[in-house]
């Protein structure tokens, strides 16, 4: 589990005010909020990419030195360096997150074996999304924070993704996902949360 105690987020306008919540492992949480209301900012705050006013966000009993290996967040395929290959990224994530998960089964499962050695500048948006999904899997992280992970994927690819999310949750992973495909993804989530609900939740 991980706890958010008294989290306050302010950008142009207040997003959260003294919000507290405890997320449980083995669950898939869907963040619900209007576009532009702070879902991405909230996810960024959990990995210290934006300023926040809060006590320490606690990831279970994990020492601070080991938190990196437990949490994975890659906001968008826009973050990819176009001159690197999918293989470069998969190897980097595997090494930096000290993951024992092998690469080849992942590329075969996502049908990336024909292009994952090519530079990303040659990838379509759908190909980039397949790579992005595999980064989460290869990381081996316990806590997975996903922002529009299914954006740009066709219906068949989204269905594969939803089954993968179910499998990951059954492995004990804790998943928080923000998605425009809320009607589709609601059928697999453990709980749908609005930012307003986080504000009302008692620690």
TrEMBL record:
<dbReference type="InterPro" id="IPR027417">
    <property type="entry name" value="P-loop_NTPase"/>
</dbReference>
<dbReference type="GO" id="GO:0005524">
    <property type="term" value="F:ATP binding"/>
</dbReference>
<protein>
    <submittedName>
        <fullName>ATP-binding cassette domain-containing protein</fullName>
    </submittedName>
</protein>
<dbReference type="Pfam" id="PF00005">
    <property type="entry name" value="ABC_tran"/>
</dbReference>
<dbReference type="InterPro" id="IPR003593">
    <property type="entry name" value="AAA+_ATPase"/>
</dbReference>
<feature type="domain" description="AAA+ ATPase">
    <location>
        <begin position="25"/>
        <end position="199"/>
    </location>
</feature>
<dbReference type="GO" id="GO:0016887">
    <property type="term" value="F:ATP hydrolysis activity"/>
</dbReference>
<keyword id="KW-0547">Nucleotide-binding</keyword>
<dbReference type="InterPro" id="IPR003439">
    <property type="entry name" value="ABC_transporter-like_ATP-bd"/>
</dbReference>
<keyword id="KW-0067">ATP-binding</keyword>
